[in-house]
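Table S2 (text version). Query chain:
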Amino acid sequence: MNIRPVADRHRTAAAARHYAVVGAGIAGVACARTLLQAGHRVTVFEREATVGGRMASVTTPFGRFDSGAQYFTVRDPRFALALETAPQVCKPWSANLVRVLDAHGRVAEAALPAREPHFVAQPGMDSLVARWAAPLGEALVTGAQVTQIERDALDGRRWQLRTAGADDSQHVYSGFDAVLLAVPPARTRALLGDGRLSAELSRRIEPVRIAPCWTLMIAFPQANQATLSHLGPQWNAARSTHHRVAWLARESSKPGRDRIERWTLQASAAWSQEHLRDDAARVEAKLLRAFSEITGVRAEPSHAQARCWPEAQTQVPVGKPHLWDAKARIGVAGDWCMGHRVEDAFLSGLTLALKVL
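Corresponding structure-token output:
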């Protein structure tokens, strides 16, 4: 993922194509970086103010929380090679000592098999995406939600994108030789116009199913005292069979994090689906009760914040690393093409870029 100097990148400007990449999560950034390195022009559109996608982090007065992906593993040599470009960002975490709990919070298994190391980015999971996105410079347009993809008004062989931003601002970006979508399935379907732009892509995406996830972030600064290092259990992460909670992690145990006692809970897919349209306050109350039942911690947190991810964990993937309609010149990438791991997202973006070169 090394980027060549600007002068070198544009030596073949006459042959360079202009790609629009929609989404600045790890898939979109990996795709854009690869195309840029190959000497092409890239414009990346991200509706949020910052990059990261579901590798999001939230900054609070009590420290940062990873509100999306909690860690990543490394199995593919291409991902391992890319991580070598950010050696100070990624650090191993003791999550490979994850406990497995029964529905009542009792340890059913002391630890999952430590077959592979688990890593986190510091100071937050979004830091890795931010590091890789830095060379994009002005090619990255944040706070711009793509609302429509259509044929270029001046050149029917190319595409133009309409965007909406803050204060109801609207813009049209034109002159794209291809459009590459690196957003969740629901947004992908909408941008494809339910088959209007590419019937083939819409057909391949239709079976994909992704479960939602409610996430709760809580902080206990009262735990950080000379006679009390932390509250509750001795473990730092656990998978749970509690009907409300599937995952718990002590954020303050991750490398490069503030030491204030903080926990992130991720609700089970079934419970999240059942309570998908609940308001955040109700979800907070229910998940706090579950946290107490699982950990035995009865203290009231000084900070509690719930966030819902409508599309969080892939249940039915595409079954291919990416999708590419050469006739329409539209591509699709995302972790949901193959699974739900961070590495899946990276490889999807990388392979799509290599396909369209």
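Notes on Table S2: The two ends are 15 Å apart (CA to CA). Residues 46 and 312 are 18 Å apart (CA to CA).
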